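Thread amino acids onto this structure.
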């Protein structure tokens, strides 16, 4: 991943919290060609010492290439947006702000017990805030019995982790404030606007 020094984010806490916050990832492995799937991938462990887990459908083309020890690239991506140079006080080049974490990992296939364990944790993660959550234990056993043989679960053991956050570091404060304001005016840009504000330590109640 291309990472100029000023945008590197390799702190353990940043990496771990980023993955938890942005779990819908791009899972890439090498089959007869490079193959990618978009799936939720969650961390298990703690900052600096974790593994990842997920599963895919057996009819997914990637399934045939899921082997113990095979390498995978997992891409987690945060909010991003085009930044128009027309927002700056002086003419400049437009750019794109974004954040991401790349994890290179070795695949370890799960057994049936591990698959069910990881499914319980995954469902718990996304159901717990629902008004009337339906946890793994609440799913009819007949449905589980039919579904489980159709998926393959796996662990991902990281051996290289890289983070990047290009959030208008080292720009003039006046221009950063304008970028924060402009992004904050559109629904799709609010999350990125807030990240740029925090990264550059801009007061939340600033006046443009």
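Threaded sequence (208 positions):
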């Amino acid at each position: 991943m291309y990472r100029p020094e000023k945008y590197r984010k390799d702190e353990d806490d940043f990496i771990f919290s980023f993955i938890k916050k942005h779990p819908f990832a791009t899972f890439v492995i090498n089959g007869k060609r490079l193959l990618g799937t978009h799936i939720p991938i969650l961390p298990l462990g703690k900052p600096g010492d974790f593994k990842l887990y997920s599963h895919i459908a057996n009819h997914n083309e990637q399934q045939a290439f899921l082997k113990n020890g095979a390498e995978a690239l997992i891409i987690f991506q945060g909010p991003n947006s085009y930044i128009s140079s027309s927002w700056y006080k002086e003419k400049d080049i437009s750019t794109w702000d974004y954040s991401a974490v790349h994890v290179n990992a070795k695949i370890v296939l799960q057994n049936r017990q591990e698959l069910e364990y990881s499914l319980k944790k995954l469902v718990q993660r996304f159901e717990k805030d629902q008004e009337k959550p339906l946890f793994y234990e609440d799913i009819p056993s007949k449905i589980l019995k039919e579904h489980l043989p159709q998926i393959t679960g796996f662990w991902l053991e990281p051996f290289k982790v890289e983070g990047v956050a290009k959030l208008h570091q080292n720009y003039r404060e006046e221009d950063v404030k304008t970028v924060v304001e402009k992004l904050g005016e559109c629904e799709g840009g609010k999350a990125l606007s807030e990240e740029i504000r925090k990264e550059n330590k801009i007061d939340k109640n600033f006046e443009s």
